[in-house]
Amino acid sequence: MECVFGLVGDGFALVVADTSAVHSILVHKSNEDKIMVLDSHKLLGASGESGDRAQFTEYVQKNVALYQFRNGIPLTTAAAANFTRGELATALRKNPYSVNILLAGYDKETGPSLYYIDYIASLHKVEKGAFGYGSYFSLSMMDRHYHSGMTVEEAIDLVDKCIMEIRLRLVVAPPNFVIKIVDKDGAREYAWRESVKDTSAPA
Amino acid sequence: MSIFEYNGSALVAMVGKNCFAIASDRRLGVQLQTIATDFQKIYKIHDRLFIGLSGLATDAQTLYQRLVFRHKLYQLREERDMKPETFASLVSAILYEKRFGPYFCQPVIAGLGAEDKPFICTTDSIGAKELAKDFVVAGTASESLYGACESMFKPDMEPEELFETISQALLSSVDRDCLSGWGGHVYVVTPTEVKESILKGRMD
Question: Which domains can be identified in chain B, with CATH numbers?
């Protein structure tokens, strides 16, 4: 089951997602990137139906880019989050997307922020958030160990604790996770936590 | 499981002497899981008009955005703020527009009308207005709130006493409802000022 979680630290925000692409009982691949880099300083971690996830996050990414082309300045994280919520809300009573989203970003004026947007378009700015069955473990872990203004080292330590708890206690725990970070220097991949490596095809 | 009980909420508004108070809980949940403990359910339309929205959080957010939009248009055209009675009719009309595909919200409207007379009302999810002279309640904790308010309410309370009464009614009611709570958010509005307070109750 898909696990996405994230938290805000001192001048940065982290989003962590599992990397399994699953259909029923079959694992198609274990290195699927579910955290999209929206623009230079935004991350969009998504979980849910794989088709909706890919289509909707790409749609948001292209619209964020379009705004920047048209207006010459990038969207703020709050604006991007509200745009995303608006699209989900409009589609909700016509053709709903089954995608849960954690949107993390860094703005020069307001610093790091994390937005929780669930599949029925409820939006809330949070310090820590999580989706999926993994949330029962990662949220509790974060409730215990999180404090505001954590350093990157402390936050990664907490993320590792959450991943270990998910691997230990979730019956169909995903083997691999990707961690992405966004801070004043931009949005980028931070690390992978792999316990199963994809084998490459024989030459 | 009802769609109105998906996120969990508790709202109450009370009338005092030339003032009113409106209070809500602070929980945002997804069924049994709590997502946030600082979720806002009461919104200011203008200095003398507040609306609380209980029920499904996504619809509460959408409805609030639509209402603010309509009120801003009204302000541009009429060059004044909306009266609470007018706003209540607007809310009712917007909800009934979606009669066969409704917003899953129950609003609580509270405002100071002409001559600083307090006005409160609530509607159901399809816009049936219920005006009251004393108090109105909404949300998953509404049954407890009816009981608490009925026993604690007195007419013509001053702002300080009104604050105490509404706070106690809210906290004791949400303690009997697992889907609402995690503190309280109270606004006491008089003709001269708006006092906003956060209550600390049982954080569970």
Answer: 3-199 (3.60.20.10)
